[in-house]
Amino acid sequence: MTTRQLTNRQPRVHSQLGRAAVQIFAANDRMNQMLIEHLDPAAWIAKPPTAKPPIAKPPTAKPPATTRKMTPRTIAAIFTHMHNVRTKWVRLTAPHLKVPRQLNRAHCTPQQARAGLAESAARCAEMLAEALGGSEGGSEGGSQNEGRVEKFLRDGWARPWPVGVEMLCYMISHEAHHRGQVCILAHQLGFPLPTEVSSGIWNWEKLWKECGSPNGPGCDDSI
């Protein structure tokens, strides 16, 4: 392949990657929605079985400065955390987009979590499209904001990354980690998710169709 052929091919490959990233994140959020939709309401704010009652300590006792207290999260807290982290990604990486409001894990209902996750998923999809070249409209299939996102900041303390597939992989890994926690916690609490859900989150062909991509994974529906 000549340098000229490679140069001409790059924008198309870049756009395909961006559109795929949008589809992937949409399917990823559909998995979250499925879990909440089929979760027993009694499990939503149930105390994790690993949570221990507080131990009374003398008033003068102080924990070491390096100790970080880790409180087990409820399922409600896990999903609100996922949404709130997404808002941080958008705020730090694409502040020109409308940043969704954060959720309060102490008062968030399953319905509020589903609505919040749907909104933050849409903003993350916009961010990915602008970063990876999957925006619709504009000249030659791109938007006026395409390329505006040049760095991915996963946290205020973290070193920025140039945008690329690493950005998408990090975002998906974070959510998959917490979905696993939800599935295990629901089982431990005595409210295991039905097989249609535990198996359904692996039916990517169906997930893609439900998210508006009828041709399934690996296919560019814009063609």
Give descriptors for this structure.
223 residues; mainly alpha; two-stranded antiparallel sheet; 6 helices; 52% helix; globular
Write the layout of secondary structure elements.
Elements: H1 3-38, H2 75-93, H3 110-132, E1 151-152, E2 161-162, H4 165-188, H5 195-200, H6 204-210
Antiparallel strand pairs: 1-2
Helix pairs in contact: 1-3, 1-4, 1-6, 2-3, 2-4
Overall description:
The chain is mostly helical. The chain contains six helices and two strands, in the order H-H-H-E-E-H-H-H. The chain has a two-stranded antiparallel ribbon. The chain starts with a helix and ends in a 13-residue tail after the last helix.
Q: Which secondary-structure class do the elements indicate?
A: mainly alpha
In total, the number of strands is: 2
Unreliable stretches (pLDDT < 50, length at least 5) are: 1-13, 137-142
Portion of residues within helices: 40-55%
Q: Provide the spatial order of strands within the biggest beta sheet.
A: 1-2
Number of helices: 6
Order of helices and strands, N to C?
HHHEEHHH
- Compute the average pLDDT: 85
Distance between the termini: 24 Å
Strand content: under 5%
Choose one word for the global shape: globular
Rounded to the nearest angstrom, the radius of gyration is 20 Å
Largest sheet: 2 strands, antiparallel
